[in-house]
Amino acid sequence: MRRVKILTIILAIVLLGLIAFGGIYIQTQNRMENKVKDYKLGRELDSERIVELKVVEEESEEENTETAENSESTQSTETTTTTEETENSENTENTVEKTEEEQMEEKIKDYETVKNTMENRLKSLNATDYTISLNKADGTIRVELPENDYTDMYIYYLTAESNIEIKDKETEEVLINNDMVKSAKYSYTVNNSGSYQIHEEIELTKEGQAKLNEILNNYALLQTEIDGIEEEEEKNNTESTASTESTASTDNTEATENTQTTENTTQTSSTESTTGENTEPSKKIANLVVGETTYNVTEIKGNKITFQVGSQTSNTTSVNNYMSQAAEIAMLKNAGKMPVKYETYSNRYEYSDITKQEIGIFALVVLGIILVILIVFSIIYKTSGILASISFIGFIALYSLIIRYTNVMISVEGICAIIIILFINLKFNQELLEKTKKVNLLKEALKLTYKDIFIKIIPVIILTLVACLTKWDNLSSFGMIMFWGIVLIAVYNFVVTRTFLKLKKQ
Amino acid sequence: MKKRDAIILAIIMLIIIIGIILTCTIGFKKQLRFSDSQKIDIYVGEEIDINKIKDIANEVIGNKNMVQIIEIYGDMVTIRANSITEEQKNTIVNKIKELYEFEQTAENTNVENIPATRIRDILKQYVLPLTIAGAIILGYMLITYHKKGLVKVMLNTILIPIILELLLFSVLVITRIPVGIYTPSLILLVLVLAITYVVCRIQKLPEKNV
Q: Where does B36-114 sit in CATH, by number?
């Protein structure tokens, strides 16, 4: 009976091994398809999207022309001052060189600012894995991203622009520019009828606040004020048309009613005078514009301006749209400045240079080392060692299935976690066998082994849990694989290895 | 401290000092994937056998190269190396032309520059989580093993992982092993080994008499 039980467990492990390492093939549409889930590989091991972003040439041309103009101007000054001593011309050449160096430094600073802004944008969008590199010579930025449903969105936001400006309504003159806006955040309010209103609040810099206080003397920015002015204008327009109509009628009736003419003319002259006052309103209108869209300003408090995004609505789709619009404005503003304009030069899908064959070879090497250790176990601990080794093979098979079915992504760090778990399990088996040999009481030996190993790895468990909670794909992969491995070591050895050793003892 | 431990510590310190000097002078060697490099893209128009292209790249440029299949249909290949000369480019394109029929010629193939990725950009995402984990582990160690002496426990928990990580970086810079996608895994591996070693070491310490 004991042998039958051992044999049954061994057969179960063999079956598990066949499923994990071979797969389950079922005929589907005239071809054999493996029904066992495939591994989910990370960016470095599978494929990624590579985006190259280059500085928009228009700007660089402008800069070139500017530098050319500068050099021309310096040349012209040099020609006019030919009578001056040669020392002076040498000095001017040095200053030209210096300014070129300074310009180059400034350019590099701008490129780095753009790079940081792009990184911040990716962070705000919860991108979980990316690499950004900058070519300081020409400003080219290379972004490597994992291929998933959000990749195109990330790429769009890398170069997206959303300038928050306050403009004169009539002349389109920029009164407060994007640089004067420090940050933006969005919120929403709900009224009793369940309608939502999305608000965006922008905070101005000191310079921006000073400018705002200055423009508020001459401009109306609040929507209530603007509405008042517009209403007044409309009223005046209608009144002026009405007055012209009344003057026309007085012309017609002039001949017949002489006594009334004087009254009418005084009336028209009085309306003319009032329209004359209203054609030059006390305040001009200023609009808050984001990109090309104008928004209604609802509140100005100190250096904070609040405006409405969309209208009040209870429609969920509209609310979501307005909310994402507000979130986009806030994200683009808070991520930082884009002093240089970039455009996507290339956007392509690249397979990893690490082939599946190379990963397979590496896995075989690790398994080879483990096999050697298991053979050593079998030699030292004899039957118990052989049974523990068989149990270990079952552990690897079950672990590989768990990694696949828990949808854990395998990165290079994940592979490292697999190796760590395999060696922790080896250590567990070795300790268990050693203690069983010494104590000769399986229950006691098992208790001691669990206590000994798990107390030692508590800091590793802490590291694992922190890694699990991170948003960074590679570290999260390490954490998740470690987590499932530690859980499996605890459960599997209690169920399988203990049973094996118990049956052997009997 | 035993004499053997003192010798080991002295050797480790020496390696770390050499490592710091080398890092300040010549810096780390980076994996091709993260260093300043050049690439050529060749559109073949049919499914490519990466091994054949890899053989050609190895023959023309040397073993330090990266061959990657581009685009979902796998009909385009990019070859990346530290530098690719005009002659090498022409030879590669012509050799691939012997294997596959395609329109692209050596003349209309451009050598493009790829910027380097800074090591701090590769590693910075690990700093915060590892610091948080380190702080929690330190708290746990101080609470669990306070009877062994708070200062001793604290010093062991902080210094051993730091020294071992510094040793890892020193070995990397001295042996000129390139820093790349395997480096974070090595850091994590060393960290796991270090904290397990710290626990074993502290467990062996005698309890302080109150």
A: 3.30.70
